[in-house]
Design brief:
By secondary structure, the protein is an alpha/beta fold. It contains 13 helices and 18 strands.
Amino acid sequence: MNRREFLVAGGLGSLAMILTGGSLSGKTLSTIDRSKPNMVIIFADDLGYGDVEGFGSENLPYKTPNIARLAEEGMKFTDFYVPTPYCAPSRATLLTGRYPFRHGMMLNPTPDQALNFGLNPEEVTLPEMLKPEGYASSCIGKWHLGHTTEFLPRKQGFDEYFGILYSNDMRPVQIVENEEVVEYPVIQSNLTKKYTNRSLDFIERNCKKNQPFFLYLAHAMPHKPLAASEEFYTPETPNDLYHDVIRELDWSVGQIIKKLKELNIDDKTLVLFLSDNGPWFGGNTGGLRGMKARTWEGGLRVPFIARYPGKIPIGKSNDALLSSIDIFPTLLHLAGVNSPSDRIIDGKNIWSLLTGKEKSSPHESILGMQGLELQFIRSDKWKLHVRPPRSLAGKNYNSDTWSDPRGPDGVTIIAPYEQSNPSQHPGICTGDDPKEMMLFNLKNDPEEQHDVADKFPKVVQRLKKMFDEYEKQVPEFKRPKGLNKVHRIKGGDLNYEIQSNIIKEK
């Protein structure tokens, strides 16, 4: 059964009509259930667990008052994971509720290396499931689930799109609106401000129509290259561009909440805040080991905050083991929609945890992946690295001569010489050397310093058995063939023709 057949069989005929060229005008004008909550996901890019106040870092050299207030007016979750320590698979999981080995987005699409794949159109996404309930939807910011025409956001259920289709260090850096390039080259310093203003406009337009909405605001920052607007850049204090970027991100969160209050829809709107993975150089893991692209805690544990006045209790903290796989079924539950029955949804409906009625995790275990392989399994306080976590060795990251093969691209970037470097490693680098079958008690050792596999063989055996059952479900994937060098691509359209001049070897 394909996706359209499933939607029709499931009673979602209005959505099937949309997908085949029809309209939803009757639903929009007369039968919308306006009591359904609005939903806003604010998804930062490479934001570390400790980059904001309240998640493991004390005495930050900057403040994030709006994000801190978000937690004070809602609930924060301190043991929240994404499935991979890098971009695209994490984004696909958020929108489908499925692990990467199920939805197939195991790696990052990359136009300047001719990796031109995307999320399978047969996958069912949040905006597709919400559309029959009268929801308007907008994806603003980073997409990274396919940059060629067959994979664009409006092909995956969104009504609107505005942003860069991949990471802001990939060529060509260009802003796309729906299916058209509207800005090239791009002044990256204005990205956070532009994405925020677009989000405010979307919220206001749908509030005036009294239509429930789903906003997916996927910020570019603090992914490299770092860029802050002139209002937030502080030239008087050099070498703190990362701080400026986070302060502007915090400002954006404040603007969203302010708009919801101004429009009197604050108590009708669920707001979720999280990151797609751990931090790059310059960031802060909050004392966790590792960083982005590594399966240590610093690569996959991210800050997560949920706010919904009158529904989610204020000022609470929960350490239950949760994952971004849980967002999909939870939002569907709020909209009164059943999860798809024709495929495995790995996530659980965690609304009872968000409202404080339950405190314990619904998961016996969760998984971490890297590339085409499962890497670790966590159950309660135990984390078993079945395959050895990668270290920084072999990448020459500690060399004073290291330079980023993907340097800043765009018209101008404020303070291009303040980009972070390997001397600003975001997490702990100490601890037992990586190897297979490492076991850590994260309650006693959240920094993953001491492998205790030899002391708890039964725990290792139990977790390995669960891991093996999951691994049986992983299909055989062929790694997409791309170019092993970064090429320059002229922007202005969606053709992505590789130019002859190579930027640098990766």
